[in-house]
CTLH domain-containing protein
Amino acid sequence: MSLVWIVLRHLADIEEMARTVGESKKMISSVEWEKKLNDVKIQKEDMNRLVMNFFVTEGYVEAAEKFQRESGTETGIDLGTIIDRMAVKKAVQCGNVEDAIVKVNDLNPEILDTNPQLFFHLQQQRLIELIRNGKTEEALEFAQEELAPRGEEDQGFLEELERTVSLLAFEDVANCPVGELLDISQRLKTASEVNAAILTSQSHEKEPKIPTLLKMLIWAQRELDQKAIYPRINDLSTATLEESAV
């Protein structure tokens, strides 16, 4: 978090310097860079809230409970709702879409009532699961009765429906042009969409803040690369500062 702030601040400083110095890059030594990092004071409470935000958003209930006890950081949400949300997410990831829809409606019927795109994608996933299990006739009937009417109302839905139904035209669906629909990544994509919708309905961020900060760091370093030579993080998993090549 402090590194993101330093990079952004330095970027502004160097842009001002570049206007007077010209195109040459500023050299920033490891000693100078680390001193600037150490000068930034981040409140422990803010860091704790970032960690708790990650646990809650990603659904790590036990970790959130333990972290709450140890740090005194409030979750800001009923942990019971996290368990229910994760049950929905797991159902989609396992291909039990009907069960997931029931669970979502038990949580809050308005989630699907007010989000036609989410409901369509859940029904689309249900169609994919029928095709995956070789239930061709049932899949065609389901597509015609449940999804086709929605496709008539929305061109985007119609295109997605046609793409999904085209799976039935191939004997080797795993290697067909739209075979990725049967990949586990499609289930995960739908599950993430449902998870985000539930979080939004609970007035909670739909994505954890930490990945967003890392994206900001990557962007800021790329911007700063154009104007300075400085110790940068090349491996986010270790966050080790490495000297840049001159």
Q: What stands out?
A: Residues 50 and 210 are 7 Å apart (CA to CA). Strands lie at 26-27, 228-229, 232-233, 241-242. The two ends are 26 Å apart (CA to CA).
